[in-house]
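Quick one:
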Amino acid sequence: MTNLHEITKKLDTNGKAFINGKYVSASQQAVFNRKSPIDGQFVISMAACSEKDIDNAVMAARVSFKDGRWAKMNPGQRKGILLKFAELIQKHAKQLAVLDTLSMGKPISDCLNNDIPLAVNCLKWYAESIDKMYDECVPPLPDALGIVTREPLGVVGAITPWNYPMENVAWKIAPALAAGNSLVLKPAEQSSLSAVYLGKLATEAGIPAGVFTVVPGVGEVAGKALAMHKDVDGIFFTGSSEVGKKMMQYSGLSNIKRVALECGGKSAFIVLKDYSDLSEAAEVLAKNIFSNQGQTCTAPSRLIVEEDIHDEMIDKLLNLVPEYCPANPFDEKTTQGAMVSHEHLERVLEYVEIGKKEGATLLTGGKKVFPIEGGAYMTPTIFDNVKNNMRIAQEEIFGPVLSVISVKDEHEAVKVANESNYGLAAAVWTEDINKAHRMAKNLQAGLIHINSYGEDNITAPFGGYKQSGNGSKDKSLHALDDYTELKTVWLKIH
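Output:
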C-alpha cells in the first residue's frame, strides 16, 4: 500500500497565498489545517486569508488592470502566454494530481486521465480564441456607423469547488484571462493546494504580477470578502445553491457586481421500456452516480424508470455495485476513493437515515468502510420505492446515493423529473426518436442526454435552469459573454 507520509514528504507543497506575483502568508499568520480524507492524517496548514488579504489581492489586481499590462497586451502575445501556461500544467501533471488526490481523496487515475487533461485543453481552447474574437458593426445606416466592441470586465473574482479542483479552476480562469481581465481566485478550502501551485506556473508562463492571484481561505471569510468587495467587477461561483444565493445577495449589498452561478443538481436519469439494452443504461448510470464518490453536480441521482422494466434495471445495477467499492485512491486501478472529508461523509450518511425514515427501501450500501484506516469512505448506495416528494429525491446529497422512482409512462417521467428545484442535467433512454425529441423539449434542464450521459466538451455551454444556475454558462464561447462588456460607439456621417 502506498505510504502517504512518504508521498507528503516528497511533495512541493505550499500553503501560502499568491498575491501580486509572490507567495505570502495571510495577515497575522492565520492558517487553517487540512487533513487528508484518505487516512485522516495532517497534510498542511493553509493560509487563511482575511478581508485585509482579499483587499490587498484586489488592489494588486486593479493596478494590473488599470495599467494594461495584460488587458492591453497584444492578443497574439496573450495567447502565447496562456498556451505556455497550459503546457506547464501538463508538464507538472503528476505533482498536481497527487496534490488533488491527497487533498480530497479522489482516485489518482481520475486526476491524471480526466481532470488535468481537461483543464489543459480548456486553457488551450480559450487561448486559441483570443485572436479570433471580432467586434461588430450594426446594420448599415445612411448617416451613421455603429460599432460594437467587446472589452474585459475588469477585476473578477472566481470561487471554485473542491470536487474537480483543476477542471473547475480552468473553467473560470481560462475565459477570464483570455478576455483580458485580472483575476482573483478563491479555491475551495478542501482542495486549495493545486490552485496555489498554479501561481508559480503562471509566473513562469509570463502572466504579469497582479493578473492571476490565488487567495486560499474559509468561504465564510475569504469568499464573502471577495464577493462583497466594491472594487470587484464580477463574481463567478460554482458550488451549492445555498451559497450561490448568498453571492447574489453580496452583489446587491456591495456594487451590483455581475454574478454568474453554477450550482447544485438533482438530475433525472429516465429509462423507458422501449430501450432494448438495459445493461448499457445501467452501466452508464452506475458510472455517473458512483464515480467521484457521487460528488458531482450533474450526478444522475434520480433513476426514473418505467414500471415494466423496474426489477430488471435494479438487478443490473446491483450487479454493478461491487465495481464501485472504495479502495486506496493512490492505486491506479481504483475507481472510487474517499469522500472529501469526514464531515461531508457524516452529512451524506445522515441522508441515508432520512431515506429510511421516509419509507424508502435501502437495497445496498449506506455504510462506512475502511480500505485505509482513518479514512472517509462510503459504500455505493441505492434506495428503491422512493417518492419524488421525499427529501432524498429533492435535496442534493452530493454522495454515492441513488434514488429509484417508478413511473407509468413517459408523461409521468417528465412530470417527476421537472418537479425539482434543480435543473442542471437529465437523460432519456428510448429508441423512439419522437419520444426523445418530445421529452428533451419538455425537460427543464440545461444539459439533456439521449441514450447517453456525460458526453460534453469545451465547445458546448455547461449550466442549468432554476436553482442550478444563474447568469451565463461555463465553457464554450458563450462563457466569454460573462467576462466582457459590450460597448456601442455611434459615429455620425456627414
